[in-house]
Predict the structure.
Amino acid sequence: MNKLKQIFASVAALTLMSGVAHAEYGLNMPVGVTETSRQVYDLHMLILWVCVAIGVVVFGAMIYSMVYHRKSQGAVASQFHESMTAELVWTVIPFIILVVMAIPATKVLIEMHDSSEADMTVKITGYQWKWHYEYIGEDLDFFSSLDAASNEARQVGSGIDPSTVADYLLNVDHPLVIPVGKKVRFLLTAEDVIHAWWVPDFGWKKDAIPGLINEAWVIVDEPGVYRGQCAELCGRDHGFMPIVVEVKSEADYATWLVAQKVAKQVAKLAAIEDLDPRELKRAGKKVYRANCIACHQKKGEGLPGVFPAINGSAVATGDINKHIDIVMNGKKGTTMAAYKDQLTDLELAAVVTYQRNSLGNKVGDAVQPAEIAALR
Amino acid sequence: MTTVTETHDDHHDHGPAKGLMRWVTTTNHKDIGTLYLIFALIMFMIGGAMAMVIRLELFQPGMQFIDPSFFNQMTTVHALVMIFGGVMPAFVGLANWMLPIMIGGPDMALPRMNNWSFWILPFAFAMLLGTFFMDGGAPASGWTIYPPLVLQGGNGFPFMIFAIHMMGISSVMGAINVIVTILNMRAPGMTLMKMPLFVWTWFITAYLLIAVMPVLAGGVTMLLTDKFYDTTFFNAAGGGDPVLFQHIFWFFGHPEVYILILPAFGVVSEIIPTFARKPLFGYSSMVYATSSIAFLSFIVWAHHMFTVGMPLQGELFFMYATMLIAVPTGVKVFNWVSTMWKGSMTFETPMLFAIGFVIMFTIGGFSGLMLAIAPADFQYHDTYFVVAHFHYVLVTGAIYAIMASAYYWLPKWTGNMYNERHGQIHFWISTVSVNVLFFPQHFLGLAGMPRRIPDYSIQFAEFNMWSSIGGFVFGLSQVFFCYIVYKTIKGGEKATDQVWEGANGLEWTLSSPPPYHSFTTAPVIK
């Protein structure tokens, strides 16, 4: 009942607010920040106006006819039912319009396909449900998933008002960072199912397909933050794997790149020591919230029939090696992915320890990052 | 066969059998037509109820009611039910009722197969809808059932595949029946180029069905073996290709959209001349345009998958071929407008729905033309712009044509006039609400909202709320439609044989309702 009340309240609010300028919302395709996106926008507007013009003529004729050629106006029906000339005219003229449309469309398409002479390459891999970015030749790669605030607010019945969350559903923990004015080539693929990488301001989307590699490219003209989403249905959390691209000046990009590499070394060193199980559990909670909660749910209860529970499950309370194996290598034929390459040794150790000692389970054992490293 | 020497006269007119068994064992085209139409209406309401669940969850940002995986089940089964259970059986029902009458034949050519092709359907859909109660729930991969996603499905997966097989078998049998009936059962003098346009469009649709349903059957069978018998047709790791399925699916899927719309073209080409009191403009060019559309529909499939990364030449070919479809489709629209031109029009409910069809289908055609432009499609693809596009061509296109034919022929079928005032109210509420429902979705898509998502960022909130409100009103007005149909079956002002002042064609020479067996002696067409 509360939900219905909420809905009625928001209808009332909407009625009050219409008229008042509202938070920016788009009516049209964004012009975007690349040469490609501007060309696509121009094509879009051209075809739109062509359609509007044809619409005015056709609907105009229909409306005129409906007003003047009605029986109640005393109209008497003519009996003509054929005209070769008319048929020819409305076959040939649309054809010419189409040819005129096809020429610029072909030009743009050819340019979009030219991914040669790129300054740098980023490999994008789609996962259920996050993105992985690998800077080719830079020894840098990371996962990018929905930010914690949105993730908390979007749970069914969370009670959090999405409008209080900054960039609700369009924010990530680690955005992709690229330099301005450079030709960046993207290689797109996927780990599990088909995804599609789309930032509207760049002017295109492209499918990321497991086992295949697609190419695309971008030269962004203005520094800024650009947001998009996965555009190909990829399972339960398809709506919750946004894309954020931070475009930085060349100098800022270089600084960022160095900082990332240093941070990575520091993290590696930290993973070598043995950790207190309680600390592992604490770290594991974070990993669980970011990676497992979508299917196995907040309290590990799963979704009966769809996603198994962790709470009291045979795996999470049984042999720890089997547990580690399923987390690392996934389960074939199900949505359960292999997390071996998605998580670090520390994260894997932490999440397994957490699952065994929380979510209603009390096995009491733990696994150290070094043991995970040995299994790789 | 034994030689039977019967002496008594077995030729008094058979009425329908009594009771439930009449409907189970019937081979009468009118009974089977009625069964198909009622089945389609039930499926339309079930599919509509799923759409209501979708619009309820999308009413405002945030997840209020359902789990995202259930949301995906809703979008998937909504589409499957509406396409295979709503629109297709509705048109087969219309074909069953009207084709024999329109060509002056006594019945469909293959009446027992006719019975069978209907009675498969309730079982197919019981199975499809039954997947909701299975482990893992109903299929949640979208109606396009792309692998690898669809292969992650639960126990419902093989049942969905089997249901699709059964629907396909039913459709192919229905199509064979249509072709055989049209080729063999026409009254003397009813040459092909004298057939009513509804007959023509169904004739062409039937060939499309026979051509592509087996392709779908093959594709889904490959899914089945990939899942259960370790084949790797669609798995790159085993030498297969996930994109191959999309090619197979859309080789079926694009002709399929014309299967859904060509009979609608036919219906509208019957109704507009009746209420304009003027013959259809350009009959032969209508036939040729329909044939060209059917041919082109086989060579444009990959425009549904411009973003999968095809070579440039492929994208160019499919872009040009797709744009070409605008030409014959334009011819049809221009011909309808010319039919109205200088007519003497009245606007009873069937005419309102037919005009609504022409205008709103054309709007869907415009967005279709925009989608054909490959570089622009890279932006439109898989957004709400596409959702708006195909709902304009399917709801205000195919379903409006079905509504128009229901109002147009109900008096003939039942012998009773529907309540004209109710019909007009139904039309206007539907038309206003359907535009509130789908028009803002163009803006949502252009502004960047992907399709098939259960929740969205704040900037899309306003239009989604409008869209949901439109959806609820549209849904309710279809309940009103069911009421109108029910009242008309139960009673009402008696319809004349002619029903409509400007109506032409053999169906109007029969009584309203027509005798259980009509044209047992073929009429002669001059």
Residues 271-375 of chain A form a domain with the Cytochrome Bc1 Complex; Chain D, domain 2 fold (CATH 1.10.760.10). Chain A touches chain B through 111 residues (CB under 8 Å). Chain A has eleven helices and ten strands.
